[in-house]
Design goal:
Elements lengths: L6 H23 L13 E5 L15 E6 L2 E9 L7 H13 L1 E10 L19 E5 L5 E5 L7 H4 L5 E3 L6 E3 L18 H15 L4 E8 L8 E4 L4 H13 L5 E4 L8 H8 L3 E8 L12 H6 L3 H8 L13 H22 L6 E3 L4 H7 L11
Parallel strand pairs: 3-4, 3-9, 9-12, 10-11
Antiparallel strand pairs: 1-2, 2-4, 4-13, 5-6, 7-8, 10-12
Bound molecules: zinc ion.
């Protein structure tokens, strides 16, 4: 039988296509809605453009939260959301933002460093659009799961080759949208290079003593469950690594390569006086061996292919079936607390002391949601 189209069937098909486009479009545009944070008392909200005018009015202008302790001390920066596909990064920064009570020194938290990375998903990866946590009041906290790169609408047209301005290093063109290849940044560059420039300016002007950039890496990548430290941070990072090992949190320590340019652990150290460190947790949702990629995988890290890969000795993390977000966030949280302790030990006048952060064990027991503040109605 041959089905023949009529003007009526054409209209029906057009309407159906328009309906699907409207649903998909609304879902796509929902990525532009800001995530909500409920800062702990004492935090003052600023914007990154306060350190670089050129960013004001730009969609890359991201919130910066600062809390001053009673006692004088040093300054520590916690940077989350460099790569929005690494949720333990943004979630750890959020825990510090929502829980920390600073007793000594100053804490600066940027939960979403590359804000424009949160406004879209990476094409062809089938990533979830969001992750969520149940809070103790029975509510839910939802956060976007974005892309590794800045939204291409704002990095268009990407060059064929990205030439890192400070070094001449050549990378694939799309890497200009990767804020962790753009440091120290330039004031008249692309929107991502400008955001990188503003963060470098913040570190300089606020005289940040210790700057921590949080990440996650796939389990088959060698730099995972690791701290990468600039020369200036190496002693501090070595002491912290030993403390973590003794606390049962195995950690690799890697020196920041001198010829790998544009990254926080290199450029923050070379262009400012801070001690930069970058930390990686292990995250199967980013790996190339993964199966179905949904919110469940992002939160639990349970994946059959990774069980096989672990049995074949192909992974750089211990993996017995999962890699839960409370474990990954717990590693980051415990590491930051160990860094703070050793900062005060090595540099008694530059210490930062804070309370209210859940321990590694508390996170394993109660989960992340128990430590996020409920959204006020
Ligand atoms: Zn990363």
């Amino acid at each position: 039988m041959r089905i023949k189209g009529t003007p009526f069937t054409a209209i029906v098909l057009l309407l159906a296509a328009a309906g699907l486009a409207a649903i998909a479009g609304a879902s796509f545009m929902a990525m532009w809605n800001d995530d909500l944070f409920v800062p702990a008392p004492g935090f003052e909200k600023k914007m990154l453009s306060d350190w670089f005018d050129g960013l004001s009015g730009s969609p890359a202008d991201t919130p910066v939260y600062i809390q001053d302790g009673e006692a004088p001390g040093g300054t520590v920066l916690i940077l989350g959301g460099t790569h929005p596909t690494e949720p333990a990064s943004m979630v750890t920064a959020t825990l510090f933002l929502e829980r920390a009570r600073v007793d000594r020194g100053r804490l600066i938290v940027i939960p979403q460093a590359n804000l424009l990375g949160f406004t879209h998903n990476s094409p062809q990866e089938a990533h979830p659009q969001s992750i969520s946590f149940a809070t103790e009041d029975g509510g839910r906290r939802v956060f976007r799961y974005g892309s590794r790169l800045t939204n291409p609408i704002y990095e268009w047209p990407a060059p064929d080759i990205y030439i890192h301005p400070a070094s001449g290093q050549q990378l694939p063109g799309k890497e200009r949208g990767n804020i962790n290849r753009c440091y120290p940044g330039i004031p008249d560059g692309s929107v991502t290079e400008q955001a990188a420039y503003a963060i470098t300016e913040l570190i300089k002007r606020e005289r940040v003593d210790l700057s921590i950039d949080l990440h996650e890496a796939s389990p088959e990548y060698p730099v995972v469950n690791a701290i990468v430290a600039h020369e200036r941070s190496m002693e501090l990072a070595a002491m912290t690594t030993m403390d973590l090992e003794m606390a049962g949190i195995p950690m690799r320590l890697e020196p920041s390569p001198k010829n790998l340019r544009g990254l926080t652990h290199r450029e923050w150290g070379d262009y400012t006086d801070t001690m930069p460190v970058l930390m990686e947790a292990g995250n199967p949702v980013q790996g190339r061996l993964r199966g179905r990629t949904d919110e469940r995988l992002a939160l639990t890290g349970e994946d059959k292919a990774y069980v096989k890969a672990a049995a074949l000795g192909r992974l750089y993390i211990p993996y017995d079936g999962d890699q839960r977000i409370e474990y990954r966030v717990g590693r980051h949280t415990a590491s930051i607390m160990a860094f703070l302790e050793n900062l005060e030990l090595l540099f008694p006048d530059r210490g930062v002391r804070l309370e209210g952060i859940p321990t590694f064990d508390e996170l394993q027991e109660k989960g992340v949601g128990a430590f996020l503040n409920p959204l006020k109605m």
